[in-house]
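Exercise 3.2. Students should predict the tertiary structure of the chain below and write it as C-alpha cells, then compare their answer with the key that follows.

Predict this chain's 3D structure.
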Amino acid sequence: MAVGDGGPATPGGVPPGRPDRRPGARTAQQWLLTLLPAFPVLLLVLRLWQLSRQDMSTMLLLVQYVSPLGLLSALLIALVWAFPFGVLVLGVLGWLLRISAPDRFDPERSLLASVAARTPGWVFAGAIVLAALTWQLRFLPTLLMLALWLAGLRARYRWPDRPDRLLAVGVALPVLAALVAYGWLGPAIVSALRGGELVTGLLLALPPAGAVVLTGPVPRRLAPAVTHGAAYAVAAVAPFLMGAVFLRAAVLPSAAVEVGPEPPATGPVEVVVGQVVTVTDRMTVVLDERGNVRFVPNEEVRAQVLCLETTRIPRSAVRAHAWPVEETALNWVMPRRTVIEPDPRCAGRVAPPAPAGSPAAGFPAPGPSAPGPTASGSPASGSPAPASPAVESRPTGRPDATAVPG
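Answer key:
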C-alpha cells in the first residue's frame, strides 16, 4: 500500500471502521466561525475596561463618548500583523496535512484542511506582501521560511510527477534564498551575537536554514498529530499575544490641559495631563493619568496641548544595513515626524510665559467667540475667551510603551 493510501472509502468519504464525525466537526467549525468576530469586540471592551481602571461608571462614560471608528482604527493598526500570521501558519499546516496524510484531509472535518482547500493562492500572496510591510525586520526571516514552506508544499501537491519542478521549488529555491538572506543579514547576526542579543540572533539566523526542512511530507502517522497540535498551540498563544499588544494601544488622544481662573482673575494654574474624552459647549472631560475623570469648565481652560508620542526607545541596537531590526518596512520608508522640543505641560509643569512679541506657546481655550489670544497664549484682559478649543501638537518626551510585534 502506497504512502497516503487509506484503503477503500465509503460513499460518504469516511474509511471503513471509522465513525462518521463530520456532523459534529462541522458544527464545531460553525461555532468557531460564529464566535471569531466576537474576539475583536471583546478586545475593544477589555481596552475600555482597562482604561477606566475597572470602574463601571467610568467605562460607561467612555463607551458613550469614544468613537467606534477610533477604536476600530486603533485595533487595525495594532493588530495588522496578525492576519498574515494566521493565514500563513494555517495554510502551511493545512497543506502539510494534505500531502502527508491524504486520507485524513477532509475540509468538512478539519479547519486546517478547509483553509488549505478553500483559500486561493492570491490570498496567500497578499498575506505575504502585507507581512513584508508590517512585520519587524527580525521577523522577516520567519516570513521567508513560511513562504518557502508554502510554495514547496503546494508544488509537491500540484506536480507530484515532475521531479525537476519539485527539485527547483523544494530544494534549489530555499537554498538560494538562504544564501541571499545570510549574505544580507550576516553582519546583523554577528552584531546580535556579540552584543548578547541571543533571541534576535536566533530569529535572524535559524529561519533561512529551516526553509529547506519542511518542503515535503512528514510520516503519515504523525501528520495529524503534528499539524493539529501546532494549530492548537498557535490558537492558544495568539489571543494572549494580541490582547497584550492591543491593551497598550492608545484609543484616546493624550493631551495636557492648562486650567486656571478666567482672566482678569488671578490664581493658581494647574496642568491636567491625561486623555481627552470629549469637549462639549460647557465642559472639557479629561481622563487623567490616575484614571480619574475631570470635568473642567471651558471658562477655566487656558490652553490645550496635544502630547504626541515620541519615537520609542529601541531595545535592540542591531541594524541590517542601517535598517533597525525593530522597524517595519512600512515605518522605515514612510516620512518621519520632525522632532521638536517637548512641551513642559505634557510633563505636568506649567509653561513659562512667552516673551512679548513672540508667538503664543499654546492655543486658546474653548469658549464663546471673541478676539484672538495675546502673546501669553490667553485672551486679552477683559475680553471673552475664543470660540473653539485649539490644540497644539507637541511630543511628550516620554518613550512609547507600545511596541507592535511584527
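Discussion points: The first strand starts at residue 254 and ends at 259. Confidence is low (pLDDT under 50) at residues 1-22, 358-365, 367-406.
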